[in-house]
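Supplementary notes for students who missed Thursday's class. We covered one full example, reproduced here. Read the sequence, then the structure, then the short commentary at the end.
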Amino acid sequence: MSKAFQIRGYFVTGTDTGVGKTLVSAAMILKLHELGLKTCGFKPVVAGMSFRNGQPYSDDLETLLLSSHHSSPHLTAEQICPYQLIDPAAPHLVAKKTHIELDLEKIHAAYQMLRSNHQAIIVEGAGGFLVPLSDTTSIADFANLIQLPIILVVGIKLGCINHALLTVEAIQKRGLTLTGWVANQIEPPTEYLRMNIDYLSKILVTNYQTPIIGNIPYKGHLTHKTYSVRDLNLASTYLDASLLI
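Structure (token representation):
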């Protein structure tokens, strides 16, 4: 039996906003679908939406739906994301401004509904691991609630080593399982950026027993927010399925 079937999926977090969590999450959904698992995506909250034909629209949610529809063609944005906030800011600040409560119980209920109908679920966090949902709760609390093993996406740029190590320590402090990390090259490669990947690959295995499961090279079109199935399939080729299954 596959590891993904036994554990029912992964929680994808990142070192920051804009590091490629959605790209990696959607690529993982396709990868697990190709391996025979009915898989979908889930995002607790999205903050920052545009409008299409007068209706709110999220590139992140459309990307997760694009990959999820391979297994579940009738899923909607409302099913995979219970809280959709218009303003592009920290979710708890937008919620406070618009008098909305980001309720962990409601988020968990939406997650459980999908989980009951899928063999695996890829949960994409919002922003970084400790992003608040309220004055007393955070994305980390939801990760702790659902107890999925975690994949860390590191956007390779100046400062990413510190961000990665801080995130790893926050995850381990909560007793959660960090299965692996993905290097996503969001800037044109340089010698120092390559050295960052080499350093993290070594230190995360040596000190935290966390292997690299993917290294997505810099490609300009993969730094955009709107992805095609071709883009997602390309990204999935850089993920090591043997470490996911």
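Commentary. The chain has one domain: 3-243. The chain is about 40% helix and 20% strand. If anything here is unclear, bring it to office hours.
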